[in-house]
Specification:
Layout lengths: L1 E4 L9 H5 L4 E4 L3 E4 L8 H10 L5 E4 L1 H8 L5
Antiparallel strand pairs: 1-4, 2-3
């Protein structure tokens, strides 16, 4: 899973840090720090955090879901 936060959009509400503290944390009162590649054990927390962001600044790319359709069937 890959996480990208649009820091120009983030307003520091800290909902993500509350819901997924291992992936997101506040540095000071307004600066967000985050793990761009959280492990799969944090998946549910990260997805909830992204959904809870009031300004929708968090994008979660679930890479393994994209690989399955790309595989061609054997000829």
């Amino acid at each position: 899973m890959k996480v990208v936060v649009d820091l120009s959009r983030c307003e520091g509400h800290a909902q993500c840090a509350f819901l997924a503290p291992e992936a997101f944390r506040m540095h000071g009162e307004e600066a967000l720090m985050y793990d761009p590649n959280p492990d799969n054990a944090q998946r549910d927390q990260v997805l909830r955090a992204a959904a809870a962001c009031p300004v929708q600044a968090i994008l979660v790319d679930q890479l393994e879901a994209q690989h399955a359709p790309a595989e061609a069937s054997p000829s």
